[in-house]
Design brief:
- The structure holds two protein chains of two kinds.
- Chain A has an eight-stranded mixed β-sheet. In chain A, strands 14, 15, 16, 17, 18 and 19 form a six-stranded mixed β-sheet that branches. In chain A, strands 11-12-13 form a three-stranded antiparallel β-sheet.
- Chain A folds into five domains: 206 residues, Heat Shock Protein 90 (2-Layer Sandwich), CATH 3.30.565.10; 66 residues, Helicase, Ruva Protein, domain 3, CATH 1.10.8.50; 107 residues, no CATH class; 143 residues, Ribosomal Protein S5, domain 2 (2-Layer Sandwich); 45 residues.
- By secondary structure, chain A is α+β, with helices and mostly antiparallel strands.
- Chain A starts with 21 loop residues before the first strand and ends in a 5-residue tail after the last helix.
- In chain A, strand 9 and strand 10 form a beta hairpin.
- Helices cover 39% and strands 20% of the residues of chain A.
- Chain A is elongated.
- Chain B is α/β, with parallel strands linked by helices.
- Chain B has a six-stranded mixed β-sheet with strand order 10-7-13-12-14-15, with helices on both faces.
- Chain B is built from twelve helices and 15 strands.
- Among the domains of chain B are: 121 residues, Orthogonal Bundle (Arc Repressor Mutant, subunit A); 96 residues, 3-Layer(aba) Sandwich (Dna Topoisomerase Vi A Subunit, Chain: A, domain 2), CATH 3.40.1360.10.
- In chain B, helix 2 packs across helix 4, helix 3 crosses helix 4 and helix 11 runs antiparallel to helix 12.
- Classes of the chains: A alpha+beta, B alpha/beta.
- The interface between A and B is medium-sized, with 28 and 30 residues.
Chain lengths: 643, 313
């Protein structure tokens, strides 16, 4: 019953009064908590107890993970607002004399949109508070990793986090906060405001780390991030004060991804259940505000009509009425009450199956039940409100690229009536529905508009700048999908130039994040190693670099470490096609290079040997003057290769 | 040599790529001449052209060698195979290794149909001669000087000066060629040269060309019979065979064989006859037997039987 969701697909809804199961995906762990369990353990508490699962297992890994989380959040924030990122990161030892592991101050500053000061305490002081919960490609989830890093810092050093945010470009707010782990609440120690000139966010934490061990990975991470984010300017100052600056290479940002609906192949029972809850309209609370709304929509602000007149009026304007208003009107008609009467009761239950409505009368302090007339035009309205949409509407409205025709075909396939109300489905039926959604083959391929590949030009420029190769080629494949999750493969190949002749090196990226660990078992490496490079005129230990970027709403990571991608056949095929295409381009370059080299070599050979022959012949023949051999050199270099 | 030089010169001057025509030394073009009783080259020729990029380098090497030996001969100087290899470097002629330069020397021999000794190129001397033989030097500075080869018990190196010397007089009635240096020294100590009135030659394994040429001259000019004392194995037998019939490598050359030389020593048949102790043959020894059996030089002779005999042991 647990949704197998990845880091990038989490559809998370914080429901304080959730009636159903909650399903959390904390990046690396999946847990289902019933309401009862949930009340006993806060998310902060959970993370505190399971911090090693989130990449905070030791000082080395924790420092690296914290860097990643903050940098990725900064980049994501800029991406969302289409701001060319300008990221400054620094790691400073609190006491340089101390030996590792020791406390470090990690500061990451961006020029992003900033966070509204009133959200800052919650965004950084509460685990699982965030806005990035939609179906689209992003690097990370705000509120998960970053807060985890803050939590880790607090646990190891007992120092607060300092957040400076400017969202309006005028005033900047600085918060110094601690996390109350048990209550999952921020504790603000200091808050001050000052004038600022531009938007941005700066987060500074003190955490125990081991830079002597994590340093090389962090430097690799920063440099490779700059390769896959050529539109960003990234500066990193390490504990020794050395600065690594990666300037912006391209000024255009790739188009941002759009948030889209789920693909039928990509949902499971739990997701469907949550979607139904969303469509399932609650009976509106009847308060003054609601009554005003009803009156306004019926044009009754000034007049007070009888119930009967009011219903007549509602009939006429029915199509213009909002859904809650229709529901209220339907209830009024069944109970035959006016607005005053409506305020004196509380609707407890509308049982469509038994055609009964139960309400509590405040006046008499008694519960009443009234039969519903199925012939009444209002019955249908109430039924649809309580039971949700028909399956047909549900499919077309809630899923991407599903039209009425496909939906009907699906209903037939799944043996459900199209007019079946989804709110009335039993647990078993939901399982059957989810199962059928997975198995039905006639859905269109997933919509890739939720993906944000880098694009060929920026990738190419990044590679040129990064490696300064003699040859480079890039390719962005068309979108493809596995299990309902769209993905795009981008790949680049670079040869020669400044690349050392030390054999093939693969740079792996997923959703613009460098993957640095567990290279051996990765699908990209598998594909690269399976290539017969000699067929592409590449021999020995070539100065060859391959840059692979997989974009997906859900990268099929092999392990919880999220460093290597599993070998899904669809993904494998795309990678292979991309690599073969690029290898062919390289082969063309290699033969051209070979031909040019050959011509050069030929010219050199004749220039070297013909004068020698002339010299020897002159002495041998007893002549004094050398023959006129110059044109032979030119002729020699022009002779076509004789095979 | 000058003719070749002129030819190249004119070609260059006319904007033509010069080339050498070399009798092909490929296996297909080496045939056995029964009349001459040695290998000779057939009629096939190979062209080495300076137009062909893959041949340009070796063409230049060949042109250089012609130029260099021309100087050697003109100035009356000598050189060795190894010295040629090193000398090339002064003229930015890059031989990869000595076998490559040795090969170019054989090419020049084939082009001119003359042995390298005529170009004053000699192998490193290792073969020696001892016995009552008076020679007269012809090399510059020693012209007319005579010498008797029994004066020095270690024997005399068969080098450039000895090879070019005139053979004047001898009291010997026989030439004994010995495969091994140790046995050569023993023969001198045992005064074999006196007991058998012989001239003793150490071939030091496979006889170098200068030694083969000397053996031939002793046989032809001085009328001495030549006997070869070689080991009773396939290698010893072949040493004797090369002295008698020449080698495939020198198929383009004449005057290096002693067809009437006799192979003495232990024969394979003797091993069975006298029940002599033997060292077991290795696989490569056995392979060598089959190779020799196919060799035309061994066809229809007594030697062939001995090969058969060897193969039994």
């Amino acid at each position: 019953m647990v949704a197998p969701m990845g880091r990038f697909t989490m559809i998370f809804k914080i429901q304080g009064e959730g009636k159903r199961w909650k399903n959390y995906n904390f990046g690396r762990v999946k847990i289902s908590l019933s309401k009862e369990t949930f009340s006993q353990i806060s998310p902060s508490e959970f993370f505190y107890r399971n911090r090693d699962l989130a990449g905070f297992s030791n000082p080395t890994r924790s420092l690296y993970t914290s860097v990643r989380e903050f940098v990725e959040n900064a980049l994501d924030a800029c991406d969302q607002k289409k701001i060319l990122p300008d990221i400054h990161m620094s790691i400073k030892a609190v006491d340089p004399e101390q030996s590792d592991p020791k406390p470090y101050v990690l500061t990451v500053k961006d020029n992003g949109p900033g966070i509204d000061p009133k959200h800052v305490p919650h965004a950084f002081g509460t685990v699982l508070y965030g806005s990035k919960f939609g179906l689209k490609q992003a690097r990370g989830m705000f509120g998960l990793g970053a807060t985890m890093a803050i939590l880790y810092g607090q646990i190891t050093t007992n120092k607060p986090v300092t957040v400076r945010s400017c969202a309006d470009g005028k005033m900047s707010d600085e918060f110094v906060m601690l996390l109350d782990i048990q209550k999952n609440k921020p504790v603000i120690l200091k808050h001050n405001t000052k004038e600022a000139s531009k938007t941005g966010l700066s987060v500074s934490i003190v955490l125990e780390g081991d830079y002597s061990k994590a340093g090389s990975k962090i430097r690799d991470y920063v440099s490779q991030t700059s390769l896959i984010t050529p539109y960003a300017s990234i500066t990193f100052e390490d504990p020794s004060g050395e600065k690594f600056h990666y300037p912006r290479i391209v000024k255009e940002m790739p188009p941002p991804p759009t948030i889209i609906k789920s693909h039928p192949h990509g949902v499971d029972v739990e997701t469907i259940r949550r979607m139904i809850v969303d469509t399932h309209y609650q009976i509106p609370a009847v308060d003054n505000k609601m009554i005003d709304k009803v009156k306004k929509e019926l044009g009754l602000q000034k007049k007070n009509l009888t119930t009967k007149d009011m219903l007549e009026r509602a009939q006429k304007r029915w199509s213009d009425l909002s859904r809650p208003v229709r529901t209220i009107v339907a209830v009024m008609s069944f109970l035959n009450v006016d607005f005053d009467g409506l305020q004196k009761i509380r609707i407890d239950d509308i049982d469509v199956a038994n055609k009964k409505i139960t309400y509590w009368d405040f006046g008499t302090s008694q519960s009443h039940a009234i039969e519903l007339d199925p012939e009444s035009p209002y019955y249908k309205q109430l039924a649809s409100t309580i039971q949700g949409d028909t399956l047909l509407t549900f499919l077309t409205k809630r899923f991407q690229r599903v039209g009425p025709t496909t939906a009907e075909k699906f209903c037939e396939f799944a043996k459900f009536k199209p007019e079946r109300r989804i709110g009335s489905m039993t647990n078993e039926e939901l399982v059957r529905l989810a199962d059928a959604l997975q198995k039905f083959d006639d859905f269109l391929a997933p919509d890739p508009s939720c993906l944000a590949p880098l694009g060929e030009e920026p990738l190419s420029k990044g590679i040129m700048k990064f490696f300064n190769p003699e040859f480079a080629s890039v390719l962005q494949r068309n979108a493809s999908a596995y299990s309902g999750f769209p993905f795009v493969v981008e790949m680049g190949i670079a040869y020669g130039g400044d690349i050392p002749t030390a054999g093939l090196k693969v740079y792996r990226f997923a959703n613009r994040i460098p993957l640095l660990y567990d290279e051996g078992s990765d699908v990209v490496l598998k594909i690269v190693n399976e290539m017969d490079w000699s067929r592409y005129k590449v021999k020995g230990d070539p100065p060859l670099v391959i840059v692979s970027h997989i974009c997906s709403t859900r990268i099929p990571y092999k392990t919880v470490g999220k460093e290597n991608v599993a070998d899904r056949p669809e993904l494998e095929r795309e990678l292979k096609n991309a690599l073969q295409y690029l290898a062919r381009k390289l082969a063309v370059h290699m033969s051209r290079k070979g031909a040019a080299d050959m011509e050069k070599k030929r010219a050199n050979l004749y220039a070297k040997y013909v004068p020698l022959i002339s010299q020897f012949a002159t002495e041998l023949s007893g002549k004094k003057k050398e023959p006129n051999y110059k044109r032979l050199i030119t002729m020699g270099s022009e002779i076509e290769e004789q095979v | 040599m000058q003719k070749h030089g002129l030819n190249i010169y004119d070609n260059l001057d006319q904007g033509k790529f010069p080339q050498f025509v070399i009798p092909s030394r490929s296996v297909n073009n080496i045939v056995y001449d029964k009349k001459l009783r040695q290998y000779i080259l057939g009629n096939a020729n190979a062209v080495r052209s300076s137009r062909n990029m893959s041949q340009l380098r070796s063409y230049t090497q060949l042109a250089w060698l012609a130029f260099f030996v021309n100087r050697l001969v003109r100035e009356g100087k000598s050189s060795t195979l190894r010295d040629i290899y090193y000398s090339s470097q002064a003229f930015s002629i890059d031989f990869e290794d000595q076998p490559e330069s040795d090969n170019i020397i054989v090419d020049l021999e084939a082009v001119t149909l003359s042995p390298r000794e005529e170009f004053h190129i000699f192998p490193e001397e290792r073969s020696s001669v001892f016995g009552d033989l008076t020679i007269e030097y012809t090399v510059p500075g020693y012209e007319g000087k005579r010498m008797n080869l029994s004066d020095h018990p270690d024997g005399y190196l068969i080098g450039p000066s000895l090879s070019s010397a005139e053979l004047v007089d001898t009291s010997a009635e026989l030439v004994i060629a010995i495969e091994k240096g140790g046995l050569f020294t023993r023969f001198v100590e045992e005064k074999v040269h006196k007991k058998f009135k012989s001239i003793i030659v150490d071939t030091a394994g496979q006889a170098p060309r200068s030694t083969r040429n000397l053996l031939r001259r002793l046989n032809q000019e001085m009328g001495l019979p030549v006997v070869i004392l070689a080991d009773g194995d396939v290698y010893g037998e072949h040493i004797a065979m090369v002295i008698k019939s020449g080698s495939a490598n020198a198929a383009h050359l004449r005057e290096l064989t002693v067809p009437d030389a006799k192979w003495l020593g232990v024969w394979a048949t003797d091993i069975e006859k006298y029940k002599l102790p033997t060292i077991p043959m290795t696989e490569s020894d056995i392979k060598r037997i089959y190779d020799l059996q196919k060799d035309p030089r061994y066809q229809g002779r007594k030697l062939e039987e001995t090969i058969g005999g060897l193969s039994k042991t």
